[in-house]
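Hi R.,

Quick one: here's the Cytochrome P450 sequence you asked about.
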Amino acid sequence: MNIASVRRPIIPPTPPRAPDNLSFFGRLAVIKQNMIATWGQRAYEEEIIQGRFLLHKSFILNQPDAIRHVLLSNYENYTRTPAGIRMLRPVLGEGLLLAEGHAWTHQRRTLAPAFTPRATANLVPHMTAVLDETIAKLDARTNEPIDLREIMQRMTLEIAGRTMFSFGMDRHGPTLRNFVMEYAERLGRAYFLDMVLPVSWPTPMDRARARFRTRWTEFVAMLIAERRAAGKNEGAPPRDLFDLMNEARDPETGKGFSDEQLVDEVATMILAGHETTATALFWALYLLALDPDTQEEVASETSGEHLDSMADIDRQKFTRAVVDETMRLYPPAFLVARAARGKDVVAGAKVSKGDIIMIAPWLLHRHEKLWDQPNAFIPKRFMSKEAPDRFAYLPFGAGPRVCVGAPFAQAESVLALARLIGAFRVELADTIPVIPHGVVTTQPDHSPMFRITRR
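And here's the predicted structure, written out as tokens:
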């Protein structure tokens, strides 16, 4: 895509690129700290890179047609890798993100009605209520250094709690955040044995993850019990996602979720929803603090808007472009790894059973053959008539397994960014570069301090 720009766009900091000849064990050492830093310049220039991982071949795909083949045309031939399953199962169980085959089909069909744009519109009042409270709290902290990353995490967690259960997370939020931090700091990292042993062979970390899962599922079940105790008014429309999920039935079989399945689905929606959205909002605020001119454009678009309905959100075209560009530069899921179930041919390369296919949105979104000025922050590229190839931009995945909650996440992100920038001017309070780290999601290496002032 060619983008004409009147002024020089900002280029946010990134980790140094690895030497293209980095050894296997050198790469393993870097993976534990920052997966993003394991890729060299070739990965940003070539359409397909073939390598080896122990007994199998590995492929990095940066060609949209090849990605379309893996994620859409022949998606049933590709499954999650052992390491991917190990990283996600303890927190998501057999929920939608990890389910396969008939179980996935049942879950997808059953959940889809709860995440349509119309269903999302009914949840906007929950979002606006939390945003009103967040802005009121921030009003008392203007002109002092603040950690906006932590504030975004608390805010999106509160939105997740209210849209899921219709109750606030004041009592349960700290416990949930402790679960998230505990898992991310140690258990959510891939270790050597996690990557080489079959899922049926427990690794030492798997035992620790199993203990974590027991505590985690008990906590989610407690939240569900509390919500059920609150009941539902007879004849009233669903008031939250829990109502929608609890009442959901597979349109073909009429089957709903068991209590065990509901725990995994609720855990998936809360974690996948609040953590990824908080991270995206943090990066958007960071970029706008680096780029005051673009920040003023967002504020100008928001000026005079009430922003309390889906129609209001849909009018924020430039703010939506800022969110889209943020997720291009900092895709929440920086890597999608799949293992081949059988033989295939991808981009002319022969794939055998067990071979690893890697589709890295971090690479794809910064690929020099797919994007003009790929490392620059240029939101208006998403307002161009020349849209990016559907399989060159994957913030929510693609194909049958595209994120079911994408409409919800997009609405929340646009609404939150518009309201926050409409209320406050955001600046960085320090000059230390923030480097993205790939650990479960695309996280900052540290939480910078910001300073906000009322508009």
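The mean pLDDT is 89.

Cheers,
M.
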